[in-house]
Design a protein that fits this description.
Layout: H1 24-29, H2 45-68, H3 78-86, H4 95-108, H5 121-131, H6 134-146, E1 152-159, E2 164-171, E3 182-188, H7 191-198, H8 202-213, H9 216-226
Antiparallel strand pairs: 1-2, 1-3
Bound molecules: fe (ii) ion.
Length: 240
């Protein structure tokens, strides 16, 4: 099984095997790594050390323990593990940890230093097509985050069959992967993601994410890869 324990657009060294994630705590204690403050002042080093170094690590360690006892799940990719353990809406015990490992990896890679602003080219055109304007999309994403009840996630996803972008919310650990959507951007709305920096001011956290942290570079890369599976234009059928 391969997975990346990367954070903030691959600024942290990565692990090629999920069992290697135990080393995360060592990485965070290494004073030579300047990367823990990469998202300051919008996401503090303290938040990153707690969120990535403790919460994310506990999901990884919990999943490792569960997988050691389960030969049937051996050899799955992380994507497959999330889908298989969701078990069509009757989650197996491994689902929460598997999905939270996947969700957090995706979240770290949805941000970058100097993020915010707006996408360009194809992704911007698709957002304008599906949301009428980039500002409308932004308002919809922020509203979805602020009206989410309890812990969960907000996502920009590409719906495969509808061939359109949508903002969706998920509760607790659920990832839109389980509905076969293709995630483009995510925002962690668990309290541990914002409380140290913003207390209960979720509005500030969400606006800061949209204006200073979100990586449209990552989103455009994901969108380009998604188009290998979803044809957003007129299909060109080869002539036999
Ligand atoms: Fe989180």
């Amino acid at each position: 099984m391969g997975w990346s324990s990367s954070c903030c657009c691959n600024l942290f060294p990565t692990s090629s095997h999920i069992l290697g994630a135990r080393d995360l705590s060592k990485l965070l204690k290494n004073p030579k790594l300047p990367l823990r403050d990469a998202l300051e002042p919008y996401m503090s080093q303290r938040t990153l050390e707690m969120h990535w170094g403790e919460h994310h690590r506990l999901y990884v360690e919990g999943l490792n323990k569960q997988l050691e006892k389960n030969d049937i799940l051996y050899g799955h990719t992380m994507d497959e593990l999330v889908k298989v353990t969701y078990n069509n809406g009757n989650p197996l015990p491994e689902f929460n940890n598997a999905a939270q490992v996947w969700n957090h990896d995706f979240f770290w890679e949805s941000m970058q230093p100097g993020g915010g602003n707006m996408p360009i080219m194809g992704l911007l055109q698709q957002i304008e097509k599906d949301f009428a304007s980039f500002n409308n999309f932004k308002e919809k994403f922020i509203e979805a985050a602020l009206t989410l009840f309890g812990s969960g996630w907000v996502w920009l996803v590409l719906k495969r069959s509808e061939k359109r972008l949508e903002v969706v919310r998920t509760s607790n650990a659920v990832s839109p992967l389980v509905w076969d959507d293709i995630p483009i951007i995510s925002l962690d709305m668990w309290e541990h993601a914002y409380y140290l920096d913003y207390k209960n001011d979720k509005g500030r956290y969400v606006n800061v994410f949209m204006n200073h942290l979100v990586s449209w570079n990552a989103a455009m890369g994901r969108m380009a890869r998604a188009q290998a599976f979803v044809n957003l234009g007129e299909p060109k059928i080869p002539i036999a």
